[in-house]
Amino acid sequence: MNCILKKDYDIVVVGGGVAGVAAAVTAARNGKKTLLFEKAAALGGLATIGLINWWEPLCNAEGKKLISGVSEEILRRTVKYCMHRIPECWQKEGVWEQDTDKRFVTHFSPTVMSLVLQEMLLEAGADIRYDALATYPDMDGKTVKGVSVETVGGTEYYSCRALIDASGTCLMFHRAGAPCRDGENFMSYYTHITTFAKGKEYNMLKIRGWHVSGSGMTGQGHPDGFPYYAGVTGDEVNNYLIKGQQMLLDEVKAKDPLEQEIVALPMMPQFRMIRHIVGGYELTMDDLYKPHEDSVGTCPYFGHKGYWFEIPYGTLYSPEYPNMFAAGRVISAHGDAWDAVRVIPVACQTAEVAARAAVLAIDKGIAARDVDVTELQGILRKNNFRIHFDDKL
Ligand SMILES: Cc1cc2nc3c(=O)[nH]c(=O)nc-3n(C[C@H](O)[C@H](O)[C@H](O)COP(=O)(O)OP(=O)(O)OC[C@H]3O[C@@H](n4cnc5c(N)ncnc54)[C@H](O)[C@@H]3O)c2cc1C
Predict the structure, then answer these.
(1) Ligand 1 centroid vs 166 CA: distance in angstroms?
(2) Looking at ligand 1, which residue's alpha carbon is closest to its atom 5?
(3) What is the CATH number of the domain that holds 64?
(4) β 180-182/188-195 pair status
(5) Structurally, how many domains does the chain consist of?
(6) Residue ranges making up the domain that contains 308
(7) 235, 210 Cβ separation under 8 angstroms
(8) What distance in angstroms lies between residue 42's CA and the mean position of ligand 1's atoms?
């Protein structure tokens, strides 16, 4: 390969969304030489440059906190510098159970979160490569040896002992030839809008909020005849973006410009479910309320009071691929269970686990599938994880 740079890392993370950052922070904090690639110019992925600035719950809406760790840390560090607040009953740290149905959710500033994510990576000692498009994993059979990356300067190559795919599109697993499954998406185009009191000056500016063109969560508003794209081809991505922007401009034209202004467009396509690995275990709705011996964390299903899953370790790797791990919305989960685990807090959580598993695999010289789950659970417990729903914390 004709490359302009070659460096060795323990762990390479592809994708600087919330999952990639949580993974890289964890890997670096645990002594691994870590490099994160992000093709955009800021961190956070859908949660920040994608304008999805609503942190779904860390709790089950019945007073039980299910998610903690780096996920909670990112949220708490971000809201410190935002106008948004965690609900009062969840503000105190270390509270696991209380008598409330109030959800541990909040809006946050996407801009501030991007900055905080970078700070966390730098503090942890991870290297960041912005404007760096990871193209292909360099495979020796099923083992990844490194990654090629396109930058403004040309093609770069980085070797690694483990790769974490946090691309949101499952790009590395797919290109490595691992079994994957594609999703389907409603046409949603979320932008940020500020509204004005009619006819008044800028001091009457209201808080910025979401403007949704096309469909929200349920499919209502999906344009007639428009395909339910996965978002896995260049054509799909382009048609989706063009349609979204056309719909938005039509809506803008129909409004009084003194009443509102669209202030930000999403800098990535807002497909919810693009592609996931078919891993050692595939989480489905049959797993709702189901304890798993090899659980590596619990999570709620946003919007569904009381729902919970235990996430089996097998969702984070593909059995034939010894040194690749999945993090965030590309883990092995299908149907509505995928919907439950793809959201921001859970994406961070699975990423932290993937990184801890990668560290263990490297230290012991073993494959992802051979990681001792009891040992992994012990490490996670020490780091504030609720492994089983019934754990007393
Ligand atoms: C319309 C919509 C509404 C949503 N609403 C909510 C909500 O209200 N609350 C909530 O919690 N969640 C919501 N979600 C889900 C949530 O935003 C995402 O699932 C979550 O942010 C995914 O994080 P991630 O890090 O796994 O992936 P992503 O955010 O997709 O991050 C992947 C990152 O990898 C980078 N990347 C990709 N390929 C490469 C490459 N080859 N080389 C280098 N970098 C690469 C991308 O630029 C990106 O930064 C919503 C999603 C959508 C689309």
Answers:
(1) 9
(2) 52
(3) 3.50.50.60
(4) unpaired
(5) 2
(6) 6-182+275-382
(7) no
(8) 13
Residues 71, 75: Cα–Cα separation, whole Å: 7
- State the pLDDT confidence band at 196, using cuts at 50, 70 and 90: confident
pLDDT score for 201: 54
Q: Are residues 156 and 215 in the same domain?
A: no
Model pTM score: 0.97
Cross-strand bridge partners of residue 64? 97
**Tokens encoding 93:** 């740290």
When pLDDT is averaged across residues 96-123 and rounded to a whole number, the result is: 97
Mutation choice for ligand 1 from 43, 46, 121, CB with most ligand atoms inside 8 A: 46
Residue 199 has a CB neighbour count (10 Å cut-off) of 9
Residues 291 and 222 in one domain: no
Q: Is the pLDDT confidence value at 338 over 60?
A: yes
| pLDDT tens readout for residues 5-53 | 779 999 999 999 999 999 999 999 999 999 999 999 999 999 999 999 9
Among 264, 292, 327, the domain boundary falls at 264
